[in-house]
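Bug #77: duplicate submission created two jobs. Keeping one. Sequence:
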Amino acid sequence: ARFAVPAAAALWVAALSHATLARNEVWKSTVSLWSDTVAKSPNKWRPWFNLGCAYGETGRLEDAERCFRKVLELESGVMLAHSNLATVFIQQQKHREALSVCRDAAARGIATPELEHTLGVPQCFVGQVDEGIRTLSHVLTRRPAYRPTHLVLRAAYAHRKREELALTHYRKAA
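Kept job's structure:
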């Protein structure tokens, strides 16, 4: 009996140590953390969104795409999921899919400068450069100092051989 209490305490400490080590594995990376959260809450959009962001940050674009699609399946009004999915498509050179995602968001009444910027980028890549320039210029009426839009407009105007406008946006982006 004299050793029973210390032995039980030692077992308890060992069990807690094992649990702590197992939990530390989950916290090893953002992907493992959010994968664990998704496994525990598969019907909530926010863990899927954060997992998609983690995958995107590590270059796992197909996994990020799957996560953002799941977010929109669970909650179609999450603006950043539309924008992030379109951005993943742009990174994958799937510009028509990016356009489709942005247009779907607009049809749902989701309109932000960030999403409009994301729409303007693939427009420029699929040969709709003038429409892309109009879209991106409209972004600047709402966010005049938005650097990413100035950089894309610089490239679009350079493509159109309008060097003075390209230089203007380059300077504004600097």
